[in-house]
Amino acid sequence: MHPSTHFTHAICRTPPASAVRGLRAVDTGAPDIALLRADHEAYVAALRATGARVEVLAPAEDFPDSLFVEDTALCLPQGAVILTPGAPSRRGEAELMAPVLERFYGEVTPLPRGHVEGGDVLVTGREILAGLSARTDRAGVLALAEIVSGWGYTLRAAETPPDVLHFKTACSLLAPETLLATRQLAATGCLAGYEVLEVPAGEEAAANAIRFNDAVILPAGFPRTAEMLDKAGYTVAEIGNEQAAKLDGGMSCLSLRFSPPAG
Ligand code: CIR
Known about the structure:
Elements: E1 9-13, H1 33-48, E2 53-57, E3 73-76, E4 79-82, H2 91-105, E5 109-110, E6 121-123, E7 128-132, H3 138-149, E8 155-159, E9 171-175, E10 178-181, H4 183-186, E11 195-198, E12 210-212, E13 215-219, H5 223-231, E14 235-239, H6 242-245, E15 256-258
Parallel strand pairs: 1-2, 4-5, 7-8, 10-11, 13-14
Antiparallel strand pairs: 1-15, 3-4, 6-7, 9-10, 12-13
The structure holds citrulline.
C-alpha cells in the first residue's frame, strides 16, 4: 500500500442546486441536479466500499462548482495546502475547505501567492507533477514547490495540453509508477519514465479516473478503457458522469483523498 494510491479518508461535497450555473468550456446544457446528485451518491458509495471514511459536506449554494472539491486543496500525509483557484468564482470554495481540513490536520498551509487548482496536481509514487494551465500559473507552482519540498517532495512543472481544463483531465495515477493518460498528454513526453496505459482513441474522457485504495473509479461509458484496465488486473468501479461532464468535471474532481497524520 502506497500513500499515492491508498487513503484512509475522503471529503466530498453534495452538488448544489446552483450547479446549473457551473463553469463550462462549451455549453452543452445545464446538468440535471437530481441525476447529478444520484451519480454523486454512487461515487461516495464506491469510495466507502473501499473501506475509507468519507465525509460529505453540505451543499454550498453560493459556489456553483463547489462539488469539485479537489481544486481547493492539496492533501499529503505531511500536511494540507489550501490552494488559490485560478477561476475567480471558485476562490471562496478554498476558504470554505480550510476549517474542514484543520479538523484533520490541525494546521493547514495557505498557498502564499499565485494560483493553483488541485486538478492540475498529480501526486505519483516518486514526485508531484503540476500542470501549468489557464487555472494554474507559474507563481503558484513555484510557491507550492517550496511548501512541498519542506515535506520531502520533488515537484516538477509540466504543461497541461491546450484546450484541456486540468492536467488530471488527461491523466490519472493507477499505481505508484503507472499512469492512465490520453495519447495527447503522453506525446508531450512529460510522463517519460512511467509506465503509461493510453486510453483508446475516442475515450479520452476516461483518463480522468482515480485509483482509490483497491479500486479504480472510472467514468461509465468507456468500455474499451474499462476492459483494458480489467485485463491489466485492476478492479474497476464505473460511475455515471454525464451530468458532471457538462461542467467539465470527472472522477478526480469530486473528492479530496488523504490520510491525515495520526493523532
Ligand atoms: C470548473 O470549470 O472549474 C468546473 N466546472 C470543473 C472543475 C473540474 N475539476 C477538476 O478537474 N479537478
